[in-house]
Every structure is written in structure tokens, then in C-alpha cells.
């Protein structure tokens, strides 16, 4: 029994609970929320955030952060819409967008790993550069995504929205990925880069890969966004960066790295979506929605931090008294 | 120590490493045979840690060759050394608390292809855990949940997983080792019998003689002698470490029998943070009291605790019971703390000399320093403008300003924690003069240093001079007046026999 309880007490648990409670609340307040249309709308609108939050979580787990992810999503969007507008086949347009994202991720990774530039500054810099590129590619919003893509995204299989299936697939993909060697190495590097280095890990390579993988996931998020909004724009995804960080933190991913799971970030993102939904269906003035959403998100972050308090205290003790071997004397060997 | 034609084992020739002007290793030669445990003994700053770091790839030597079974194995990063089967167990553990025991053990060489092989991981780690007597431990436990002494044994399990050809056990300050002596000894002997060349760096001579086959002594960055452990005595080793014959030991108490100036600091059963021992200590006005000991025996923690850096501390200051809750409250009670770690704990690198000098008196005590330029000059700082950033000065001049900052607060008690670390000789002298002058003006100074010669020089050998020697967080010996000498300080620092340790 204690074993089962122990398994439930993962870093993702608070976010899953928050999600479940808010989901039930939304269903009560807004009866149409549970309808196929309501569900399709909800998951369709928030799949991009779910994915980019996972991308952010992968990078944060490895000990970094990426402020350019929103800009990367925009880049994929404008490249794709522009190419499709010029009659390029959809498959090639997608490939071009993904490659552009991977290139930005590779540059971020190089700046942080080989260049030893703090992730916050390196990715802030690339964010501005990528924003500039987006404006050059597509100065004003416009263009349209292929209709089959838009229709497919909004459809469902046996009443289950495609976007919901995508969320489940994303979680499954992470579960598979978490069995790779690379995943363990990422957690090790994010937990303590020095100890990882002393253990023989190629720390710079792992760090670099985390940015490339993060950008790759962000490009999928961008395709979901494009299918949902059906158009392109030079600042279509700028706000996603901060939301992704918030979702990851609510999901139990520590800013300090090494703990938490992208699965938690998925539920953190869905929680953010539900809150916006709930506030809107409560009929609160749309001008005030942002403030209310922000306050609830803040409460969510505080709550999940409090739940993690015991493990946080543990790590605090460790840093406060690095040479405390004898304090443990008499403990069972 | 002749170079032999025999290619088997670890051969180190002409190893040299300098840190700035300081030579940590000079032309060091060492042979360690496969299937033997080789003890390394040496005092503070003898070069043991540098040697261990070079062999294990954490530090790159300036010159020298390392071969293992005739093949060059000089490594430029830990991963290379590990690939050659050269493994070090770190006493400042290399484990990741947020990962499970199994994940930690296999971290450097995770079994499997793209995906991890769970079956292989379990098989490997079960063997390694059993080998260090942790067969009962659940491999899925997070390391964060384990006590320190279990974590310490995990370091050995992790080392065994690499099938080490060379294993370096660095024990310098390890209180952990004592809790696990039997298991560690058994594990090391088994590895030796399997043909591993083991280098055991330690301090407790009795245990080293017991465990090791050969013992080498390091002094001033060189191996000065090698001994056959079976036929050597602790006395011989100690004499070799100090470089001179032993002085006779005398029992003494840290509590002053003769009082001089008024007593400023009085500690009774004061718990040393992160150490088992407690401290009894008196410091009188007008005195510089020395604190000696091997690195990591709690000297630093004691000083930091008195300055409120380890939470609330209760002690007697100027005859009053005081509680120091934080550095802020320590400063307001007239306590000053100068750390040798200038970068993180002393200077505000991009700020001016003037700002660095006046920060504490201006911002904490709201007492303006009228003429910072004159103060800087009186400190002997060589500078161009009061407004230049402190990072433009040499380490010695920076440290003079850090000390000057505290002198400006007119402290009752100044705690100097290896305050002259990494400072050139001339600046060191001037820092000493400033400390002695402060004492002469009626303050009490506690001067901790890992450099025995410096301690003796600063504290002196006058009738009232005192050096307390700390081991495992307790004063184990107090040297007074003409008993004070570099040799006696070193000798008192070393735990020669088990009878010396407190408890």
C-alpha cells in the first residue's frame, strides 16, 4: 500500500490533480464543455501549448531554459505558410519548417554548451534574431493553411478529438523516450553537471541535444498551432514561451533542473487552458480575464511548490551543509 | 624509486603542476603495482589532491607521463581516465540525489543500445551493491533518501562497476570512512586480489599501515620516501611527513589558565557545524589566537558559525550571552569575518575600491568613512583611483581592502578564515601586520589557517601565544608560548593513533 502511494507521489501528481479538479469544475460550470465540439475546441486550442511545454520541460530537466521557443514556433509557422502559399508541396513545407527550428535549437545548444553562455541570455538573444527573421519572411499576417490540414485537425475519430489523441500520443512518446539512455543522461546533467562530468558523461553533448530536441518538439507544436489558426503571422506564437515555462513549473519541473517530467508539463499546460476556459465561461469581463488567469496560475505555482516543499528542504539541507557526513553517524549502513 | 623495466602497474614519471607561482607537484615519480594497495600520506598542501586529480583526469599536468601496463594513460578529462579503467572515489560524493541508486551506479556506462537495458542494469548493480555489503538495499531508492554513510559506500559500488585497473581512494577528511572501515577494507582487499592497483590517500597512519602494502610520503609536491607497510612504524611515517624528528606530546586544555586582557569570546561545548565535536575556547582582547588542523576538520565551519552563517549561534561575547542570528546581527555586535574566498565572499568585483571598502560601515552600521583614499593608503593598497573597479587590483590588494572594510567597523572580534589564501608573500605580510595591529588596539582576533608556517609566524611564540589544533570539530591540542613550532602544529594535526580522536 505504501508502495502504491509512493508511486503516486511523483513530481507530476500535483499538476494531474489540479487538472482533474479544474476539468470537473469546468464541466459543471459549462455543460457544453463536455460535448464533442467543446472537447475538440479545447484540445485543439491547447495542443500547441501542451507540446511546447513539453519542449520547455525537456530543456529545463537538462538544466537549461529556452526563451526562443515561442519565436521558433512562429518561425515554423511563417516558413510553412509562406512556402505553401508559393505552391510548395505540404510535405516539403513541413520539412523546411522543422529544419529551421532544428537549426535554431542547434545554435542555442552550441551557445550554451560550447560557448558557456548562460541559457537565459543565449536564448534571449536568439529570440530577437528569430523574431527578426520571421518579420523578414512574413512582414504582415496572412496566408492560409491547406484546408485538409485545418479540417483534419478539428475532426475526431469515433468522437475522440484528433488533438486529444495527439496529447495521449505525446505522453506515450515521452514514456518511450524516458527508457532511453539519453533521458537518464539529461536528468543527470540537469541534476548536477559537475557530478555528471566526473561520472564520465559527455555533458556538452547532452546539453546541446536537449536544445535540439526541444526545438524539434516546438516545431510540432507550431504545426498544431498552424492547423488550429489556419493562417500565418510574424508574432503568432510569441506568448507561448512564458506560458510554457509556467506550465512546466506547475507540472513539477524545477527551474534548477534535474527533476520533474514533461508529462507533468502536459497537465500543467492543460490546467492553464482550463483556467482560461473557466474564467471565460464564468462571464468575467474579457478585459479582466488575463489578470484573473494570472492570479490563478500564480496560486497553482505556489501550490505545486508547497507540495514539493519536503523534497526542496532536503536539497536545501544538502547544499547548506555539504560536509555533514558525521551528522548521519549511527544511521544504518 | 627507480624506473623499472617492468611494465605492469601504474608508472608516474616527472609529474609537474603549477598553480600560478605555486608548485603543487615537482618532478613526482610514483610506482603502484597491480594487485597492491599503496598508501599516500602527506600534510596540508603536500600535493596529494593534485596528484589524485591528475591521475583521474580532472586536472591536466604541466609535464610528466603516466603509463598503465606500459601504455600512456595521461587523461584530459574524467571520461578518458574512466575509459582506461582509472577510477576515483570522491569524498565530496559524485552521486546525484535526484536519481535512483541503480541509475547513479550505471551513469557513466549505461547498458543497452539506444534504449537502456533494464535487465542488464539490475544484474550489474546487484553485483556491485553486494560487493560493498549493500545487497539488501533496494536499487530503486532515490539517493536523496539515503544516509551519508550509505551514499559513501555507493561511491565504491560505482567504482567497482567500472572494473577498475587503478582505483584512487581519496580520504582526506572523510569522517564517513570511519563508519565503514571494515567494509571498505574488505572491498579494497578483494579488488587488490583481483589485480587492481589501489592508491589510498589518508591520514590515519594506523589504518594505513594495516590496510596498505606500501606507503609513500608526499612532502612539498614530491614523494620523499617509500616504505614497506609490514615493517614500518607510525613514528617513522610521521617523522618523514614532518621532515624532522618528533617533538614530545603534551596534554593541554583550550581553556586559558592565565588570563591577560579581558575575555572577549568564551565558547563552552559550542557545537561545530557538520562535525561530531564541540569547542571550548577563550579569546582575550589584544590577542591573535591561532586555529590549526587538517583541512576540513571544522575550523572554517566554527568561524562561520560564530558569524551567523550556520543559523543561530549562542555564545558569550564580552561577558554577555549573545545570540547571533545572521551575519547582519554579527556585524552589529562587533564581529567581523574575513574569508579567503575573495571572489564569492569578499569583493563586489565590478564596484569601485571605495565602495568595496565602505560597504559594511556605510550600509550596515551607517557610519561613514570620511576619507576612503587615506584609509586605502594606510592599508598599503597600491591603486590609482578610489573609483577604479576592485577587479583591476591584484588578489593581495583586493584582500587588503576586504580586511580594511572590516577594520573600519572597529570590530571587537575578527574571524580570519584562511584570509591570506592565494595572496603573494609581500601582501601576506601586510595583511598579517594589519591583523596584529588590530589586536594591539584591543580587539580579539581568531586566525585560522591551513598553512602551519603562517600560523606560527602570525601567532608568535611569546608567553601568551596560543594555537588550538582542531580535529573532527574539537580542540585536540593547545600549544602555548615556546611550545609553538611548525613541527608541533603539524604533528598535533595528524591523528596518529586511535586514542587521539575525541569520543
TrEMBL record, chain A:
Listed transmembrane segments: 12-30, 42-60, 67-84, 90-112, 119-138, 158-177, 208-230, 236-255, 262-280, 286-307
GO CC aspect terms: plasma membrane
Membrane-topology descriptor: Multi-pass membrane protein
One Pfam family from the record: BPD_transp_2
Localization per Swiss-Prot or TrEMBL: Cell membrane
Organism: Mycetocola reblochoni
Origin superkingdom: Bacteria
GO molecular function per UniProt: transmembrane transporter activity
Keywords for this protein: Cell membrane, Membrane, Transmembrane, Transmembrane helix
Protein name per Swiss-Prot or TrEMBL: ABC transporter permease
UniProtKB/TrEMBL annotation, chain B:
Keyword set, alphabetical order: ATP-binding, Nucleotide-binding, Repeat, Transport
Superkingdom: Bacteria
A Pfam match: ABC_tran
Molecular function per GO: ATP binding; ATP hydrolysis activity
Domain spans labelled ABC transporter: 10-245, 252-497
InterPro entries noted in UniProt: AAA+_ATPase, ABC_carbohydrate_import_ATPase, ABC_transporter-like_ATP-bd, ABC_transporter-like_CS, P-loop_NTPase
Alphabetized PANTHER family for the sequence: CARBOHYDRATE TRANSPORT ATP-BINDING PROTEIN MG119-RELATED (PTHR43790), GALACTOFURANOSE TRANSPORTER ATP-BINDING PROTEIN YTFR (PTHR43790:SF9)
Protein known as: Sugar ABC transporter ATP-binding protein
Lineage, opening ranks: Bacteria, Bacillati, Actinomycetota, Actinomycetes, Micrococcales
